[in-house]
Amino acid sequence: AQERYASIRDRKTVTLDGKELSLVMNAGLMADLPSLDSSGAEGVGLFRTELQFLVRNQMPKRSELVSLYGRVLDAAHGKRVVFRTLDIGSDKVLPYMKPTDEPNPALGWRAIRVGLDKPGVMRMQLQALIRAANGRPLTIMFPFVAQAEEYHMARAEVDKTIERERKLGHVLPETLEVGAMLETPSLAFAPQKFFDDVGFLSVGGNDLKQFFFAADRENERVRRRYDTLNVSFLSLIERIVERCAISGTPLSFCGEDAGRPIEALCLAAMGIRTLSMRPASIGPVKSLLLRSNLDELRKIISDARHRGEQSVRPAVMAWLKQQS
Ligand code: PEP
Ligand code: MG
């Protein structure tokens, strides 16, 4: 399938009305990295570091992480890699961590909540990332930030670790970007100051949608019940885009919907300019974006919203059909 899109692989993603997008990929294992070149992704928009922790039966050593992250950066040949710190806890229990018994794991002690309460592992991971960068640019993203303070506390850990590494004589990253995932609705309503302070934001659409509609992303009976193109969800996305624009905060979207061509197209029409997806989705998403006029689509979406429709999908599908 990749071959079908080979002719557009090295093309910039510019829509018919001249909007430029950046298509990047999600990864988590070393084996994913060759896809950077084959897919034409401009970088890794989400590197899920927990996968490396989940495939082992004991806590990896810091030295192992340094070598692993170093190899990831080598394989990226200077393309940006967004390392997301451990997103574990609750259902994603590490075999070597004491399980906690929680009635609602998805709403439980997970991701950055674990990282802040028990900072040992997070510190080790931050050290490993800094050492692996070894003077190269470094981008770190914290998962599941629900309120500004969590980001600020995590950011303070990064600064402390940088200081410690400097004192130990390690080379510091050439540049350091620190950002957060926006995957709980609360963060979209954080004070504007948060948007000024955060280095960048990436919408984790899988979790954001699950919490917005109160529909378990793992539960087959409900997970497809609410459309991503539901006008309420698009309003939330619109709000996030506007708030980031006010602060000049770089924004991306890295949930599965970024890799679904019609959803990706609508996210682009709502103003998202960086989409991170499975490598195999880059070709199909790019192909549709190259053939589309986002201003025109935005108007189709607005009209459907004004008519009071529940989802803009029928209007978008009709518009697409009329184009082909
Ligand atoms: C998300 O929630 O959309 C996301 C990208 O993170 P994960 O799927 O790993 O929870
Ligand atoms: Mg998530």
TrEMBL record:
Record's GO cellular component terms: cytoplasm
Superkingdom assignment: Bacteria
Example GO molecular function: kinase activity
Biological process annotations from GO: phosphoenolpyruvate-dependent sugar phosphotransferase system
Signal peptide from the UniProt entry: none
Subcellular location: Cytoplasm
Keywords assigned: Cytoplasm, Kinase, Magnesium, Metal-binding, Phosphotransferase system, Pyruvate, Sugar transport, Transferase, Transport
Membership in a protein family: Belongs to the PEP-utilizing enzyme family.
Name listed for the protein in its UniProt record: phosphoenolpyruvate--protein phosphotransferase
Source species: Falsiruegeria mediterranea M17
